[in-house]
C-alpha cells in the first residue's frame, strides 16, 4: 500500500482496525477524540462493535468484558480519562486478559489543558491502577510509528495476556504526515482456550481477579512477575541515532525524542559528538542498553515534556557512574530544537559534576521563561 | 435359589439443575441468594441455553456466585457488571449474558452503569438482589435501606434528613425506552418464589428475542446483618420491604406479555 497523507489519530485508529480490533469502547476527550470518531464511522460498517460509553469508568469496564471474550479490543483516551480508567486497568491486569489502551497525553495535573505533554509517564509506566503488575508501554514518535506500534501492541498484549498502552501526545495525534497503512488482517476463527464464549463441550471458564486466600494471590503475583521478566527479556525496543561514536547521549521518547533528533543533527553539524537514544518501550525500559551507553559516553542529557519522570528511571540505571543532566518543558509546552541544541552545547562544555539535576534545570528553565522563550 | 433384587421405577421430581455446579454454600442460613441462584439455573436449563450463557458476578456477598453455576462466568468490579456485560454482549451478540447484582453494587456505586445499560437497550438480563443492606462488608446502609432502619453506618436508624430516601430501581429503570422487561418480585414465600422464577424466565426470553434490557428485582433477606432469625427475616420482607418496594410489573414488552410460560 502506498504512502498517504494521514492524520495521526485517524491513521492510528485505522491501523487498529486493520490489526484485527473487533471492539472499541470509549468516551470523547481532547486530544484523542478523532480516534473514537474514526471507530464510530468504521467499526459498525465492518460488523464490529463500537460503543460510546457513559464515562471512562464504563468504557474501560466494557473493554474488560469484551477482552474476556478473547477478541482484540481497545479504548483511547487522555490523562483525565486514564485516571478514571485506573480501576478497570487494574482488574484487566489481575484477570490476565489482553487489552490495548491509547493515551494521547495532554498537560496536567487536574483538568490542565489539551496541549501536548508527556506528564503521564509515571501513570502509564508504573501501571496506573492498584496492585502488583506491569503494563507494556510503547511510545511512537511519528504517525508511521503509531501505525506500526498499535499493531505490535495488539500482538504483544495477546501473546502475554497483558495490558499494552500506547502513549503519544497531541502533536502526533493531531499532525498530518505521510505514512503507510498495513493491509487488513484476517480475523482469527478460533477462541483462545481461556476465553468466555459459552461452556459448550468443555468445563466452564471463569475469569476473575479475586483470590481470597493470600497464598493464591501470591501465586498470581509470581506468575505475573515471571511473565513480566519474559517481556523484559524479549520485547525491549528502541532507536539510536549517531550513537556509535557519541560522547553526549541525549535520551528522549515520543515527541521530545523527535525534536531532540533535530537538535542532535544540528549539534553534529557543529562538530559536537552527540547522539540520540530513543526508547520505544518505556516499559520495559531498555535498561541494559542505557547502562551500556553510560559506560561509553561522557554525559547523558534526558529530554522530556514533563518534570523529569523517565529521568528518575534512567538515574536508577546509571547511578553515579556519569553525570545525568535534564531538560524538560511542562504544562503542554513542546520544546524547540534550538532549545535542546543550546542544552547539548552546554552539556558538551560542562566538566562539573551535577549535584542537583532538577534544581539546576529549574533555574535555567525559569531564566529562559523570564527571557520570554 | 437365586436372590433377585426388586426394583421399582420412581419418578425423579427434584434434582440439581445442570446449570448449577456441585458446591457447598457459603451463604448464611436464611439468606435467599441460594434460592435466586437456583431459579436462574432452572430457567437456563428449561430454555436450553446453558452452553451459551455468560454470567457477570458483582462485588458483594455474591462475589463468588460463579462457584455455584455450571456455565461461563466473569467477575466484575464493584458496580460495573452492566458495563462488563455490555462489552461481552456486543462482542458475542448470539450468546446470553446476565449480571447478578446486589443493591449497593447496582443502585449505589453502579448507578450510572445500570441506567445507561437500560437506556442503550442492551440485550442483557439483570438479576437484582435487593436486601436493603450491604452484606459482605458487614451490614452498612444501602441505597435501598428503609427509613428508620438500623445499620452499622446508620446506627440510630436511617434518618432521611441526613441520609436521604431508598431508591426504587425497578420504577426508575422502567422509565428507560431501552428496557423491555422490568419487574419487582420477592423471595419471602413459595408463591412469590414461583412468580419470581416465571419472571426470570421472561427476562431471559426478552433477551433471547432481542427486545432490550431486562431486569428482575428480587426482594431478599439478610438475617445476619438485619440481626433477626431466618423466619423473622422473611416476615420483615413481607411486612416492611414490600410496602416500600411494591411488587409488580413496571415494564413488559407486549411480545413478552403475550408469552405463555409455565
Write a structural description.
- The complex is a heterodimer of chains A (373) and B (262).
- Chain A has helices spanning 8-18, 33-42, 56-67, 79-95, 121-125, 143-160, 170-174, 214-234, 254-269, 287-294, 309-318, 337-349, 357-370, and strands at residues 4-7, 23-26, 49-52, 73-77, 99-105, 136-138, 163-169, 176-179, 206-207, 238-241, 248-251, 274-279, 281-283, 299-304, 324-328.
- Chain A is an alpha/beta fold.
- Chain A starts with a strand and ends with a helix.
- Chain B has one domain (33-257): Rossmann fold (3-Layer(aba) Sandwich).
- Helix content of chain B is 36%, strand content 18%.
- Chain B contains 10 helices and 9 strands.
- In chain B, the strands form 2 sheets. Chain B has a 7-stranded mixed sheet, sandwiched between helices. In chain B, strands 5-6 form a two-stranded antiparallel ribbon.
- In chain B, strand 7, helix 7 and strand 8 (213-219) form a beta-alpha-beta unit.
- In chain B, helix 1 (33-47) packs across helix 7 (190-208).
- The longest helix of chain B has 19 residues, at 190-208.
- Chain B is globular, with a radius of gyration of 19 Å.
- Chain B starts with 32 loop residues before the first helix and ends in a 5-residue tail after the last helix.
- Strand 9 of chain A pairs parallel with strand 2 (72-75) of chain B, so a sheet runs across the interface.
Q: Please write the CATH class name of chain B.
A: Alpha Beta
- Output the CATH topology of chain B: Rossmann fold
Which strand-content bin applies to the residues of chain B?
15-25%
CATH architecture of chain B, by name, is 3-Layer(aba) Sandwich
- In the sheet with the most strands of chain B, the strands line up as 2-1-3-4-8-7-9
What is the count of helical runs of chain A?
13
Distance between the termini of chain B: 51 Å
Give the helix level of chain A as a range of percent.
40-55%
Which of globular, elongated, flat, extended, rod-shaped describes the shape of chain A? globular
Please report the distance between the alpha carbons of the first and last residues of chain A. Answer: 42 Å
Number of domains of chain B: 1
The H/E string of chain B reads HEEHEHHEEEHHEHEHHEH
Give the oligomeric state. Answer: heterodimer
Strand count, sense and barrel status of the largest sheet of chain A are: 7 strands, mixed
Classify the secondary structure makeup of chain A into a structural class. Answer: alpha/beta
Biggest sheet: strand arrangement of chain A = 3-2-4-5-7-6-13
Could you say which overall geometry of chain B the principal axes of the C-alpha atoms support? globular
Amino acid at each position: 500500500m502506498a504512502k498517504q497523507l494521514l492524520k495521526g489519530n485517524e491513521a492510528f485508529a485505522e491501523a487498529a482496525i486493520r490489526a484485527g480490533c473487533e471492539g472499541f469502547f470509549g468516551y470523547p476527550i481532547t486530544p484523542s477524540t478523532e480516534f473514537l470518531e474514526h471507530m464510530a464511522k468504521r467499526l459498525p460498517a465492518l460488523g464490529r462493535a463500537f460503543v460510546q460509553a457513559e464515562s471512562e469508568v464504563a468504557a474501560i469496564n466494557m473493554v474488560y468484558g469484551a477482552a474476556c471474550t478473547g477478541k482484540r479490543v481497545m479504548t483511547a483516551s487522555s490523562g483525565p480519562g486514564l485516571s478514571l480508567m485506573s480501576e478497570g486497568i487494574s482488574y484487566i491486569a489481575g484477570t490476565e486478559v489482553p487489552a490495548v489502551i491509547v493515551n494521547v497525553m495532554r498537560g496536567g495535573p487536574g483538568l490542565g489543558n489539551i496541549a501536548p505533554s508527556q506528564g503521564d509517564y509515571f501513570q502509564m509506566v508504573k501501571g496506573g491502577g492498584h496492585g502488583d503488575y506491569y503494563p507494556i508501554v510503547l511510545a511512537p514518535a511519528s504517525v508511521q510509528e503509531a501505525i506500526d506500534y498499535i499493531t505490535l501492541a495488539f500482538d504483544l498484549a495477546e501473546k502475554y495476556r497483558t495490558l499494552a498502552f500506547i502513549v503519544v501526545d497531541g502533536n502526533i495525534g493531531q499532525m498530518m504526515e505521510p505514512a503507510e497503512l498495513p493491509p487488513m488482517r484476517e480475523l482469527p476463527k478460533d477462541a483462545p482456550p481461556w476465553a468466555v464464549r459459552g461452556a459448550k463441550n468443555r468445563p466452564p471458564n471463569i475469569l476473575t481477579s479475586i483470590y481470597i486466600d493470600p497464598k493464591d494471590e501470591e501465586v498470581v503475583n509470581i506468575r505475573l512477575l515471571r511473565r513480566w521478566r519474559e517481556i523484559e527479556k524479549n520485547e525491549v525496543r528502541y532507536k539510536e541515532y549517531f550513537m556509535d561514536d557519541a560522547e553526549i547521549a541525549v535520551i528522549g521518547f515520543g515527541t521530545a525524542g523527535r525534536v531532540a533528533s533535530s537538535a542532535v543533527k544540528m549539534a553534529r553539524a557543529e562538530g559536537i559528538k552527540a547522539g540520540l537514544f530513543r526508547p520505544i518501550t518505556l516499559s520495559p525500559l531498555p535498561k541494559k542498553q542505557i547502562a551500556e551507553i553510560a559506560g561509553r559516553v561522557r554525559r547523558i542529557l534526558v529530554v522530556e515534556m514533563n518534570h523529569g519522570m523517565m529521568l528518575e528511571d534512567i538515574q536508577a540505571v546509571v547511578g553515579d557512574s556519569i553525570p545525568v543532566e535534564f531538560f524538560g518543558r511542562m504544562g503542554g509546552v513542546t520544546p524547540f530544537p534550538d532549545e535542546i541544541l543550546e542544552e547539548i552545547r552546554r552539556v558538551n562544555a560542562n566538566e562539573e559534576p551535577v549535584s542537583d539535576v532538577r534544581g539546576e534545570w529549574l533555574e535555567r528553565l525559569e531564566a529562559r521563561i523570564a527571557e520570554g522563550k | 435359589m437365586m436372590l433377585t433384587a426388586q426394583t421399582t421405577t420412581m419418578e425423579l421430581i427434584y434434582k440439581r439443575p445442570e446449570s448449577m455446579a456441585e458446591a457447598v454454600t457459603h451463604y448464611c442460613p436464611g439468606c435467599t441468594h441460594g434460592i435466586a441462584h437456583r431459579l436462574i439455573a432452572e430457567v437456563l436449563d428449561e430454555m436450553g441455553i446453558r452452553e451459551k450463557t455468560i454470567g457477570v458476578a458483582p462485588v458483594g456477598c455474591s462475589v463468588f456466585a460463579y462457584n455455584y453455576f455450571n456455565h461461563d462466568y466473569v467477575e466484575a468490579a464493584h458496580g460495573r457488571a452492566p458495563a462488563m456485560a455490555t462489552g461481552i454482549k456486543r462482542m458475542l451478540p448470539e450468546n446470553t449474558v446476565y449480571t447478578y447484582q446486589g443493591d449497593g453494587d447496582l443502585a449505589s456505586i453502579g448507578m450510572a452503569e445500570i441506567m445507561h445499560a437500560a437506556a442503550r437497550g442492551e440485550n442483557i438480563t439483570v438479576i437484582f438482589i435487593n436486601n436493603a443492606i450491604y452484606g459482605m462488608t458487614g451490614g452498612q446502609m444501602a441505597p435501598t435501606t428503609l427509613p428508620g432502619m438500623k445499620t452499622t453506618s446508620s446506627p440510630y436508624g436511617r434518618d432521611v434528613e441526613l441520609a436521604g430516601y431508598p431508591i426504587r430501581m425497578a420504577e426508575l429503570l422502567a422509565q428507560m425506552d431501552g428496557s423491555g422487561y422490568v419487574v419487582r418480585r420477592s423471595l419471602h414465600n413459595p408463591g412469590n418464589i414461583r412468580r419470581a422464577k416465571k419472571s426470570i424466565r421472561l427476562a431471559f426470553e426478552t433477551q433471547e428475542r432481542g427486545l432490550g434490557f431486562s431486569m428482575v428485582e428480587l426482594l431478599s433477606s439478610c438475617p445476619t446483618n438485619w440481626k433477626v432469625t431466618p423466619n423473622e427475616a422473611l416476615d420483615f420482607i413481607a411486612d416492611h420491604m414490600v410496602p416500600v418496594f411494591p411488587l409488580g410489573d413496571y415494564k413488559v414488552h407486549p411480545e413478552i406479555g403475550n408469552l405463555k410460560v409455565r
